[in-house]
C-alpha cells in the first residue's frame, strides 16, 4: 500500500478510535443517573453535518428550556451512521442515551447489510430537512437546466459531490439521472464524510474536487448566504424561504422527491417507563422557544410522530429505501 494511503488509513482509524473512546466515557458518566440529570446525544457523523446540527440544536433547547440538567453531544462518524448505530447497540438498557437518525442511515444500513433500527427503541421523528443542488458562485452553470444538460452530455467529466455512498445525496443524484434517462452506472459520485469536507471540495480548484454538490441546505447555508455558493434547485414540496431557487416540481422533475427526515432513537432494552420519559423529554424540548428558533433558522418543517407510529414508520421507510436503492442501481 502506498505511504499516502497508509497514512490516510491510520488517520481514519485514529479518528474512529477517539470517537468510540469519547462515546464510552460519556456513556459511563451517565450510569446510574436518570436521563433528566445527564443525557448523551449521539451524532453519528462528523461535526458540522446535518446530524451534528440536530444534536446540538436539541442540546441547546434542552439546556435553555431546563429540560435536562446536563446534555453532551458525542460524534461517532462513519459508514452512513452505521458505526454510531453499532455503538448504540452495545448500550442495551441505557436510558440516558439517544442517537440522531434519518434517511441517510437507512441507506447506510441497506448498503452495508448490517443490523438496522429494529435493534433500537424508537423515540420520535422530529422534522424534515431538505436537499439542495449547489455550485460555486463562479460556476458556469447559472441554472439547473444548464447543469443537467452538461452532465447528461458527459457525466464522466462532471463528478457530483455529496455525503455517504448510497445515502440521500447519492439517491437524489440517481433520481435526477433516472429522470433524464441516464444509467446510474454513468454517474461519477464522490462521497464525503461530512458537509464541511464537501464544501471545501466545492470551493477548491485542485484536481479531484467537485463542481456540483448535493446535500442538506444547512450544510451549504453559510456559504450560500455569504455568496460563495449558489443553489440551483431545492428538493422540497415548496420553495425554501429566503432561498432563490426553484423546486424540482417547478423544474419538471416531480419524481425527484426524497426528503431527509430527522429523528431520535434510544438503545434497545429500556423499560416502557424509560421510553415514556425519553419521549417526554423530546416533547418538552420541541416545545421550547429555542427549538422553534432552530426550526425557523434551519428551514426545517416539523413532522413529529412518536411511539408505535414512529416505529412503524421506520419499518416502512427502510423497506422503501431498500427498494429505491435497488431500483436506482445503487444496492
UniProtKB/TrEMBL annotation:
CDD domains per record: PBP2_Bug_TTT (cd07012)
Record Pfam families: TctC
Keyword presence, Signal: yes
Domain of life: Bacteria
InterPro entries: BUG, Bug_dom1
Leader sequence segment: 1-24
Keyword terms, alphabetized: Signal
Family as reported in the entry's similarity comment: Belongs to the UPF0065 (bug) family.
Official protein name in the record: Tripartite tricarboxylate transporter substrate-binding protein
